[in-house]
From TrEMBL:
One Pfam family of this chain: Fucose_iso_C
Protein name: L-fucose isomerase
Any GO BP: fucose metabolic process
InterPro entries referenced in this protein's UniProt entry, alphabetically: Fuc_isomerase_C (IPR015888), Fucose_isomerase_N/cen_sf (IPR009015)
GO cellular component annotations of the record: cytoplasm
Record GO terms (molecular function): L-fucose isomerase activity
Domain L-fucose isomerase C-terminal as annotated: residue spans: 344-470
The UniProt record lists the keyword Isomerase: yes
Highest taxon of source: Bacteria
Record keywords: Carbohydrate metabolism, Isomerase
Length: 472
């Protein structure tokens, strides 16, 4: 089930209340929340003021009413925001979440007190109440997230950031629990590094749909340049990138393959693909699939080469966190003597967002062994300076777990004279990161995204998915 990053996220809202605190605090809270939600583009499901006292939750009966409301909207709710305008009722919040049985991320917010208004009429004590609510959720085994500040008003800029980050966390969690990945072809014989466990992935809600590459190529070979779908895909490819010196017959080949890949994705409702490339496609079909993969990734349907299923899963996770395309890259080269810079590289399948100077070309490294004329379809382009989130999800089959690492850095405009898709990355303490990757058996493929979303990914994967995550 694909999760669209452009769609507004619906949150269930629990407003905690305690009867010996002023009711006006709950009423003010509702108005504050509506303003914060409008600013963040969030749709809220919360009790009406007529159903319980001001729509708050305190007693077990009120918790049941809120839980019933949440269950009625379970297909919409991607996360729950717990708001404490006063101390709140710790059991009421916990019981609501228990009986709602949503199993979605939960964010706990508590209001700050005014130092000059600690009288009975305005006292909140939410600083203390938040600790009690979290203690109860911990006892109930309910996972939850915290705001940056222990107490924060909904109008505070930091809460706006917290809310946006939480929404992104909800997208990542829902997406990862329902993603469908197409594994097209067999893992290339020379790439043991991209082995993975389908069973471990499936236990985490991640489905893999396999197909033999011969079926894909067989369907492509039955198409002709005169077929309308081929004409349409050819027009789309030419609109997507300058084709350089690519011969017309090669463009038709690329378009035919593109038609079949798109049909396969639609038939199986796939969110992402991992495709056998090196070197079966070139030897048995005569072109690269890079352009098609780039178009898919640009359209938020990430695609990785070498049948790197957990690589494309990593692309999908980062895409959900940021709302922008991801790219699969190699940790490829040192950058001169700079110990905190390196070269990121791949033959040419990065999303167009990373390649302002995009142009269709060939894959020179592959061409040295199988003939450059069989590698048309690779893209050439340099990624300019931008923010960087990098990371990788992997199955550790020996331990029976999913593990990951994430981090942030920057892509730079440093000089880089080479071919293919290429970028220069600057990452603090890069040498330590490389040691971690090598000592923990991670792949040479990593994923990059032009964002700062490592914290969101860590929260989603470690706290809610239960995976082992290293945040560099």
């Amino acid at each position: 089930m694909s999760v669209k990053t452009s769609e507004p996220v619906t949150l269930g809202v629990i407003i905690g209340n305690r009867d010996f605190f002023p009711d006006r605090l709950v009423a003010e809270c509702r108005a504050d929340l509506l303003e914060a939600f409008q600013k963040a583009g969030v749709k809220a499901i919360m009790l009406d003021e007529s159903v319980t006292k001001l729509g708050g939750v305190e007693t077990f009966q009120e918790a049941q009413k809120c839980a019933d409301l949440f269950r009625n909207h379970a297909s919409e709710i991607m996360g729950v925001l717990v708001v404490l305008p006063n101390f709140g009722d710790e059991k009421g919040v916990a019981e609501t979440l228990k009986w709602a049985r949503l199993d979605v991320p939960v964010l706990i917010q508590a209001y700050p007190d005014d130092l000059n208004r600690l009288d009975v009429a305005r006292r909140r004590d939410a600083w203390c109440g938040k600790i009690s609510v979290c203690n109860n959720l911990y006892q109930f085994g309910i996972k939850y997230s915290l705001t940056t500040k222990h107490v924060v008003h909904p109008s505070d800029p930091s809460f706006h950031s917290d809310l946006l980050n939480f929404v992104a966390t909800c997208r990542v969690v829902k997406g990862l629990r329902n993603v469908r990945i197409g594994a097209i072809g067999a893992r290339p014989g020379g790439f043991n590094t991209v082995r993975y466990s389908e069973k471990i992935l499936q236990r985490n809600g991640i489905s893999v749909v396999t197909v033999d590459l011969s079926q894909i190529l067989g369907h492509a070979n039955k198409l002709t340049a005169a077929d309308q779908p081929v004409k349409e895909r050819l027009d789309a490819i030419k609109a997507y990138t300058p084709t350089g010196r690519t011969p017309d017959d090669k463009l038709v080949q690329i378009a035919k393959l593109d038609v079949v890949l798109n049909n396969f994705m639609a038939e199986h409702s796939l969110d992402a693909t991992a495709i056998q490339c090196w070197t079966s496609l070139q030897q048995n079909y005569g072109c690269n699939v890079c352009t098609s993969m780039s178009i898919m990734s640009e359209n938020m349907l990430p695609s990785a080469c070498e049948v790197d299923v957990t690589g494309t899963l990593s692309m999908y996770a980062m895409q959900l966190a940021s709302g922008s395309p991801s790219a699969l890259v190699d940790w490829n080269n040192n950058y001169a003597d700079d110990e905190n810079k390196c070269v990121l590289f791949h033959c040419g399948n990065w999303a167009k967002s990373f390649l302002p100077d995009i142009q269709m070309s060939t894959a020179p490294i592959l061409g040295t062994t199988i003939g450059e004329e069989n590698t048309y379809g690779a893209l050439d382009g340099r990624t300019p300076a931008s923010p960087l989130t990098f990371g990788r999800i992997s199955t550790d089959d020996t331990k029976g777990v999913i593990k990951a690492y994430v981090g942030e850095g920057a892509l730079t405009d440093d000089a880089l004279n080479t071919f293919g898709n290429r970028a220069v990355a600057q990452i603090d303490n890069l040498q330590s990161l490389m040691k971690y990757i090598c000592r923990n058996g991670f792949e040479h493929h990593v994923v990059m995204n032009a964002s700062k979303t490592a914290g969101i990914l860590t929260e989603a994967m470690e706290n809610y998915m239960g995976w082992e995550v290293y945040n560099h």
